[in-house]
Amino acid sequence: WQALAIEDEAAEEALQRATVEAGHRDRRLQWAEVPHELASLISEDSNERHAAIAVARGVEGLGDPWDAWLGRLAAYRDRFGHVKVRFLSTIFGHTLGRWAREQRDIWKRGLLPSRKVARLKGMGFMLDLESEIFAQGLAELRKYVMFKRKRVVPLSYLTDDGFPLGQWVVEQRTKQRRNKLTPRQIELLREAYFLWRPAETPSLFFTHPEDPEAAAITRALEEELRRLRWQPVGERRRYFRSLVLKHHPDISESEHAGSTITFLAEVKDWFLAGS
């Protein structure tokens, strides 16, 4: 089964369907219940009982448990006529409500694979429209940062699926400035932006003085700069200017002013990059 699933996409999809069906029935499938796509992969000369056992082992050993839960959701829909699952709801003794809440949370964070999103939506299991768009944008932003290895998204950028990621990013920054993003949304955006951190590698950008007292100053600055890095560029520029004025040797009386200004000069491009 494992070899088939790896080499044959149709076999993988057939195994997914069988796993959903097993979850829907909450038991091993009898031979007559095995999806045709999967049954066709088994030799016609096989004993039906042995073939059913082989399918069950494939489902239990290689099937995605998520698909079994999807089958349970389908059973819930068949029984109650909807998929508005309350947190304490169960089916066949399984805590379906808890699972449903977990899926919505993962979905909102943009971490639910598109295949699973499509399967849930196909059953009528939805987020509210605004949350769904945010989740999609977050998922696309994660992919962009990971694969493009940069955080600046051009305004005109469209994903392969046609999602206007550049425009979406601008909208999120506008909402953030107007305090229309929740703390959780801000946290998720920050996490997405910092999936790739080459510009934050200490050996490249955060070289600190050898003097312990001077290093204590620059490390404190590093921590603050990291915290503010996601803020709009205008705010970052104002803050950086205030640091330069505060620590400039012509103004500061600190004996470490020179090394502090050198540190700020080295991290300026990183801190002010992006829009």
TrEMBL record:
Record domain Helicase-associated: where: 65-125, 132-191
Pfam family, one: HA
TM regions (residue ranges): none
Domain of life of the native organism: Eukaryota
InterPro entries cross-referenced by the UniProt entry: Helicase_assoc
PANTHER family: HELICASE-ASSOCIATED, HELICASE-ASSOCIATED DOMAIN-CONTAINING PROTEIN
Record's protein name: Helicase-associated domain-containing protein
Protein species of origin: Alexandrium andersonii
